[in-house]
Write a structure and sequence with these properties.
It contains six helices and no strands. The protein is mainly α. It folds into two domains: 1-31; 35-96, 434 Repressor (Amino-terminal Domain).
Length: 96
């Protein structure tokens, strides 16, 4: 690996660590959570249609479709809500 690429990678890792520790303010567009949560997988595990899952989450079905098709990524409260759905689907189903 070239030294320049290595240094870029090292800088990215240090920035990620600082962000996770709350020591850095990184613009929202530069933060990506790979593989979590996966709305399609969560919905399938819950055995719900897109329409029903969107209803349970309290979101527009088009929003869910955009997430599942990779056109958009859930952020902020939506990310947390999907994490709750993944860990405790019964909570959302009880509220629906």
């Amino acid at each position: 690996m070239k030294e320049e690429r290595f240094n870029q990678l090292l800088e990215s890792i240090e920035e990620m660590k600082a962000y996770q520790c709350g020591e850095a303010d990184v613009p929202a567009g530069r933060v990506h959570f790979v593989g979590e949560p996966d709305p399609r997988e969560i919905r399938r595990r819950m055995g719900l249609s897109q329409e029903d899952f969107a209803y349970v989450l309290g979101i527009n079905i088009k929003t869910l479709q955009n997430w599942e098709q990779g056109r958009r990524e859930p952020t902020g409260p939506a990310m947390k809500l999907l994490q709750v759905a993944a860990a405790h689907p019964e909570v959302l189903l009880d509220l629906a």
